Amino acid sequence: MTDFFKGIPQVKFEGADSDNEFAFKHYNPDEVIMGKRMEDHLRFSIAYWHSFAYEGGDPFGGRTFERPWFDGGIENAKLKADVAFEMYDILQAPFFAFHDLDVRPEGKDFAESTRNLEEIVDYFALKMESSKTKLLWGTANLFTHRRFMAGAATNPDPDVFAYSAATIKSCMDATIKLGGQNYVLWGGREGYETLLNTDLTKEADHAARMLEMVVNYKHKMGWDGQILIEPKPQEPSKHQYDYDVATVYGFLKRYGLENEVKLNLEQGHAILAGHSFEHELAVARSLGMLGSIDMNRNDYQSGWDTDQFPNNVPEVALAYYEVLSAGGFTKGGTNFDSRIRRQSLDAEDLILSHVGGMDICARGLKAAAAMLEDGKLEAARDARYADWDSAASKAMLESDLESIQARVLADGVNPEPRSGRQERLENLVNSYM
């Protein structure tokens, strides 16, 4: 045991009337909602990078946190793992997620970095033997080091492509060894800054080929986890290739990969793309592409990805409405891709931020389930499109322009606008909050 979280008790459900800040007020893992335990609906995951690798920096300032595992080699990486699993136990978190760079020190070359990763993965495996916390997903950091400044799979240098492919393989191996249920590809530098030096066709082809290699390796290893792409626009590249759900789906269709890959969607990224979170989730649901989510929020007055913990129940409820409407998570879950503020220096802040986020998600899930079970919102939506269920309307869709025009002329069709009833539906949704 370390003393980093000394004096902090394990967080348990005590109910809405509790005044214990180290207690869940709304997240009751065993509460059954729509036939499933709340824990199994939400499938919470703790992000290793924000909780243990983040130093408190922002675009205008460096480290504000002082952690005993910073600036060290493999032994400090193991200390970081000890602290991480103590936090997972305090929160009774079902899952965690990591990039390779989060968990191991950078070596002098690829071989040393891989050895470091393998040593930490073995250490994780030992920790997991006595922990309820499992691996939701792993991924590779192909964006921080200067070698990736022009991308990974889309880099003009074949050696960077090769280094990236080798890194992905090592991270997939780590994920599979630890029993991870997903592997995420996040193209943090897959984009361009200027068209003056960019071959769009070649970069798209190379990105697709890398993804094909990932899919092929998954099948070769006999792994039944999900391959996920995480859309993100504008940050840090001016033009990201993985801009939003629609853009990524178009890319997957272009290269015939839409049946092999699903999406990991983040609220903060949706906002950067000019969308709401529920919009991105709804598009993914309609396309059958929803795999997992990163739960956070952005500061709406800032133009960058602030990764704050969720605190808006209506936003979260509409997100889980789409998740539940899609059938809920299978292998995916709710990963807190969220970080405490750079002035939140204490170990208690790290725990309580997750407690608050988990409670907000629980409230949102319960509101979403109530809306679905009540059925009024879906009934109103169905009623708006009810005329399309008639035989004449269905026949029209199988017809042609000439026949439709003849009918409009013969029947004197002259439609009047119908109300969309938006405010009434907003009032309905608010009644569940």
Summarize the structure.
With 433 residues, the protein is of the alpha/beta class. The protein has helices spanning 38-42, 48-53, 74-91, 100-103, 110-129, 158-177, 200-221, 245-254, 267-272, 277-287, 313-325, 347-374, 376-384, 391-397, 401-411, 422-430, and strands at 12-13, 23-24, 32-33, 36-37, 44-47, 95-99, 134-139, 182-185, 191-192, 226-229, 239-240, 261-266, 290-294, 334-336.
Structural class: alpha/beta
Helical fraction? 40-55%
CATH class of the largest domain: Alpha Beta
Order of helices and strands: EEEEHEHHEHHEHEEHEEHEHHEHEHHHHH
Strand order of the largest sheet: 5-6-7-8-10-12-13-14
What's the CATH architecture of the largest domain?
Alpha-Beta Barrel
**What kind of assembly state do the chains in view correspond to?**
single chain
Rg calculated over all Cα atoms: 24 Å
Ends apart, CA distance between termini = 41 Å
Largest sheet: 8 strands, parallel, barrel
Strand content: 5-15%
Question: What does the overall shape look like?
Answer: globular
Could you report the average pLDDT, rounded to the nearest whole number? Answer: 97
Number of domains: 2
CATH topology tier name of the largest domain = TIM Barrel
Family: Belongs to the xylose isomerase family.
Cofactor: Mg(2+)
EC number: 5.3.1.5
Binding site for Mg(2+) 2: 266, 269, 305, 307
Architecture blueprint of SSEs:
Elements: E1 12-13, E2 23-24, E3 32-33, E4 36-37, H1 38-42, E5 44-47, H2 48-53, H3 74-91, E6 95-99, H4 100-103, H5 110-129, E7 134-139, H6 158-177, E8 182-185, E9 191-192, H7 200-221, E10 226-229, E11 239-240, H8 245-254, E12 261-266, H9 267-272, H10 277-287, E13 290-294, H11 313-325, E14 334-336, H12 347-374, H13 376-384, H14 391-397, H15 401-411, H16 422-430
Parallel strand pairs: 1-2, 5-6, 5-14, 6-7, 7-8, 8-10, 10-12, 12-13, 13-14
Antiparallel strand pairs: 3-4, 9-11
